Amino acid sequence: MSITIYFAGTRNQKISRLKVRFWESIRAGILKNNTAQVIEPPSAAEEEDILPEEFVMVERTQPDGTVEQIIFSSGGNVDVYDLQDLCDKVGWPRRPLSKLAAALRNSYMVATLHSVSKSAGEEGNEQKKLIGMARATSDHAFNATIWDVLVDPSYQGQGLGKALIEKLVKSLLQRDIGNISLFADSQVVEFYRNLGFVPDPEGIKGMFWHPKY
């Protein structure tokens, strides 16, 4: 069952709460060992503007010396084949590539997480893979809906999904879009509730039309 849930709170409260939760979720969920280094948040002056489209969210050193960076981007640069592979990893049914490409192209915002690994002492030897994505459609004024939230199963449980959604919501709020909704399966409602979303606020019900066969 899919449930429509909505982001709650005033705009100032949202921004303040998200700013705290965003960085706390990274520190609490991703710092699994002392080889990880979280990049510090932008300064207060930088917070006045829309955040950069791309930045290093996490940097950590693997036991073999390989340096891995988790890079967040809201630039919307997604290879449709990489996205299909990510959908396969999480067990989603395959969708036509042409429709996936159209969905990305017509989205208001596409946020991604890429893992970039660099081997120690080897210049130019870099491996990059898509490990997370979420996108939003919008009327560019009042409303936005979040779709296709994915995190590679091998990277789940590290707080990356929370960080991805919080950063996407914060980016929408910075564009003065305050009515944010998404569709969630019943087993992940609590996950989104912890991020400030509420199901059916003030009696609002999400309704769906579908053809009768």
From TrEMBL:
Transmembrane segments: none annotated. CDD domains: NAT_SF (cd04301). This is N-acetyltransferase domain-containing protein. Gene3D superfamilies: 3.40.630.30. InterPro entries: Acyl_CoA_acyltransferase, GNAT_dom, NSI-like. Residues 76-213 form the N-acetyltransferase domain. Keywords: Acyltransferase, Transferase.
